[in-house]
Amino acid sequence: MPELAQIGVTGLAVMGRNLARNFARHGHRVAIHNRTYAKTASLLEEAGSEGDFVASESMTDFVASLEQPRRVIIMVKAGPSTDAVIEELIPLLDEGDIVIDAGNAHFPDTIRREGWLSELGLHFVGTGVSGGEEGALKGPSIMPGGSRKSYETLGPLLEDISAKVDGEPCCTYVGPDGAGHFVKMVHNGIEYADMQLIAEAYDLIKAGTGASAAEIGRIFSTWNEGDLESFLIEITADVLSHIDAETQNAFVDVVLDRAEQKGTGRWTVQNALDLGVPITGIAEATFARALSGSVPQREAGRGKLAAETVGWDIPDPDAFVEDVRQALYASKVVAYSQGFDQIAAASAEYGWDIDRGAMARIWRGGCIIRARFLNRITEAYERDADLALLLADDYFADAVGHSLAAWRRVVAGAASNGIPTPAFSSSLAYYDGIRAERLPAALIQAQRDFFGAHTYRRVDKEGTFHTEWSADRSETSVEAAPHVLTPQPAEKADPTPA
Predict the structure, then answer these.
(1) CA distance 328 to 399
(2) Considering Cα of 235, then 239, then 242, then 246, what sign does the dihedral take?
(3) φ, ψ for residue 10 (rounded to 5)?
(4) CB 84 within 8 A of CB 100
(5) What is the DSSP track for 318-345?
(6) 3-class DSSP state for residue 130?
(7) Stretch 417-444: mean pLDDT, rounded?
């Protein structure tokens, strides 16, 4: 009887086949299956010599080729396709087997699926995988959720194939049910913000100095040697230096200026609204992609709306570029700080007990947002695991404070000269809001009490109050005035779809 496989992968598109190859390269016997056998045969032909593969044409044979407890990774398009594969697997599995969804599933779906399979005695592990095609093959950042028990047998295999930084695997147990896919969702939201900020920095330098794409690419290469060192800065330098073969123009200049999205950024913003967590940088980055695709509106605005800009006089281009660099760093810190706030809020809401320091640690390698300053974030949470605001950590408070004057100059200059910087600008506004002694929200709450009797609290005494605006404008305590209803919190959406 042939030796059974340690892990199986069904769904052999690029990510699935690369994960299977990664396991095989690390000495694991890998069962492989695809709905159409042609992709299975293609994998064997291309990479069969890289390790020990067990190929199956049917799902029945695929499951039978796995040792128990069976570990099955599903790598199909998120949504109904995932449910269809699960339904096909269930009759073939035994109690204690583990089903792993390593696609970009929406975390409410993962919560539902985990509950569904746990009732059948099966483990369901929603797993975030970041790093793209290359990461899947050479070592991604991996964010598994599900039960701790499932991680006992699955975790060592995932840690083995993950990226390594300072000898540590970029993989750790995240938390129950949907925690792994939630963290991957926020990771992608931060990625949206990071990419938008980099694009704004490029646009500012181009508009302010007239530098060519290649020249700006060299600037980004220099930045990648300092505090901004990251995968996204590195590839930006490569993209900006690339020449289009057909036109011999800068490649970035022949790409249509419409940025698409697959939904994870939108999910991040929607969830932040549900949790009441301000993630303004991520939200503006998501809306910027939507605006880029608003073709009729952009055409109408381009031909009609005035600019009323001033002449942008930059006497020292090098100093200006340094200002943009500092503004980029400060805005990036805001995006990460907001993202970690969202993780903390969701962890409390869903009872996940997510270790934010561990998330920063596993994002240091393999993933798209890997960056040098994630080491600093890891250290911040090591100093204080319950850190209320990443921006308030001593290191980041000092670093952002040092960049503040440059940040303000860049945002002001962009506004005066009609350069859209939604992520830079909103990040600075968030920074000023979070540090403010007092916000104009007092006026908003007073307005709400005026038109809706929504009540308010006072700064000088305890209690909840209402002013009789349509009568004598006397103030009454809500407890003493039963006709004034205490506002109820908004009903929370059920995270588990029907």
Answers:
(1) 12
(2) positive
(3) -115, 130
(4) no
(5) HHHHHHHHHHHHHHHHHHHHHHHHHHHH
(6) strand
(7) 97
The pair phi, psi for residue 227, each rounded to 5°, is: -65, -25
Query: Rg of the chain over CA atoms, in angstroms?
Result: 26
Q: Is 191 a catalytic residue?
A: yes
Choosing from 45, 87, 95, 184, which is the catalytic residue?
Answer: 184
Of 13, 20, 12, nearest to 57 (Cα)? 12
- CA 335 from centroid of its chain's CA atoms: 10
Tens-digit pLDDT profile for residues 159-203: 999 999 999 999 999 999 999 999 999 999 999 999 999 999 999
195's CB contacts (< 8 A; 6+ apart) are 232, 285
* Mean pLDDT score, 220-240: 97
The per-residue pLDDT for range 340-392, each reduced to its tens digit, is 999 999 999 999 999 999 999 999 999 999 999 999 999 999 999 999 999 99
- Please state whether beta strands 98-101 and 123-130 pair in parallel, antiparallel, or not at all (unpaired): parallel
User: Average pLDDT over the chain, rounded to whole?
Assistant: 94
Three-state DSSP class for 398? helix
CA distances to 205, 365, 384, 386, 466 from 381, rounded to whole Å, are 34, 18, 5, 7, 42
Residue 228: which H helix or E strand, with range?
none
Which position among 133, 152, 168, 191 bears the catalytic label? Answer: 191
Q: Assign 356 to helix, strand or coil.
A: helix
